[in-house]
Amino acid sequence: MRYPYPFRLISVCLLSILFLGHSRGSPGIDPEEALPVFSCGLSFPQGIFLNPNTIYVPFKMVGRLIAVEAQVDTVSGIFVLDTGAERLLLNKNYFGWDHRIKDVAAFGSTGPMGPVLFKKVDTLQWDNLYFFDVKANVVDLSHLEAQKNIRLVGMIGYEVLKDFEVFLDFQTMTIVITRLDENGFRIDQDAIPELPYDSLGFMMRRHLIILDATVDGARLKFTLDSGAELNLLDRLVSRKVLDHFEVLKRVNMRGVGQNSVEVLAGKLYDVVCGNQTNEAMGTLLTSLEDMNNEFHTRLDGVIGMEFLFPRRTLINYKQKKLFFYKNNNKP
Q1: Are 316 and 184 in contact (CB under 8 A)?
Q2: DSSP per residue over 93-150, as a string?
Q3: Element spanning 241, H or E
């Protein structure tokens, strides 16, 4: 493990991997069966509607997060695009809730978040793209609003995105959302006129994108989360990997939940995902025990905006592939 030298690093990481599991003592409850249907009217006032299958949505960066102007029913504000969230998340400061299920709990990157709140409305609409029977959670996001100084209405997660290609273009600050057929091919062939220069397959564990990676030949599994301002690295990785982690300072990490944990912050070097090499990436060294226990897997870390921001990346959940497009600003 490399050791500190003076360097300024942000002290809080919004890491919003959210998943549902059983509360202790209630192993018989299936979260998927227990959740009532939740749907709402969701629109993007600044979106450019090209045809019934494609929409261009401008975004801005709030810190290191992708933020879009959106509206749910009569409530407008900022939504964060968050591939680490299992479904649509709404801030309970703006939405009432019908009931909670005591035997189902939510877990975030900093541990348990307590009982899950639910609400029933009608239809979810993404500009002129419609969704039905969308499951959503109502959670307290007030501390993130205060941290980012924004009106944070909610977060858009996997259940909303899974039937579309999602192209994150940081060059034009635009998200292209285009509908896929049942085989994972885009219906609108003109939605993205460019061709990718590279692709990378991934696995799915429930809603999480799992990527194979290496550090100095050591094999790792990372989940890709657009809601992570910094990467996470599990503290139980091998010494060979830790030798490429440079410690800079101790910080407090806070996610969607109210919990805060002290972690080591630094830089992770020499991460390779397929053909994609990476510069030194801001990373927090912490425990991923809760996440690994819930998913019955062995995740070594989370990669987020440190990986995504330098690239133009398209996510295709049905084909289970990432596609990478040339950045025209680079020589």
Answers
A1: yes
A2: TT---SEEEEEEEEEETTEEEEEEEE---S-EEETTEEE-S--EEEE--HHHHHHHTS
A3: helix 239-242
* Domains contained in the chain, CATH given: 19-179 (2.40.70.10), 200-325 (2.40.70.10)
- H-run or E-run covering 33: helix 31-34
Q: Nearest-CA neighbor of 2 among 305, 301, 302, 264?
A: 264
101-136 residue pLDDT tens: 444 444 454 444 555 566 554 555 556 666 666 677
244 Cβ contact partners less than 8 Å away, ≥ 6 residues apart: 2, 215, 216, 268, 269, 270
CB atoms within 10 A of CB 175: 20
Write down the pTM of the prediction: 0.83
Question: From CA 200, how far away is CA 278, in angstroms rounded?
Answer: 14
How far is the C-alpha of 94 from the C-alpha of 206, rounded, in Å? 28
Record the tokens describing residue 83, joined without a space.
């591939």
Place of tokens 């900022």: 78
Q: What would the two tokens of residue 299 be?
A: 């995740």
C-alpha to C-alpha distance for 273 and 251, rounded to whole angstroms: 27
Chain-centroid distance of CA 140 in Å reads 17
User: DSSP code of 269?
Assistant: -
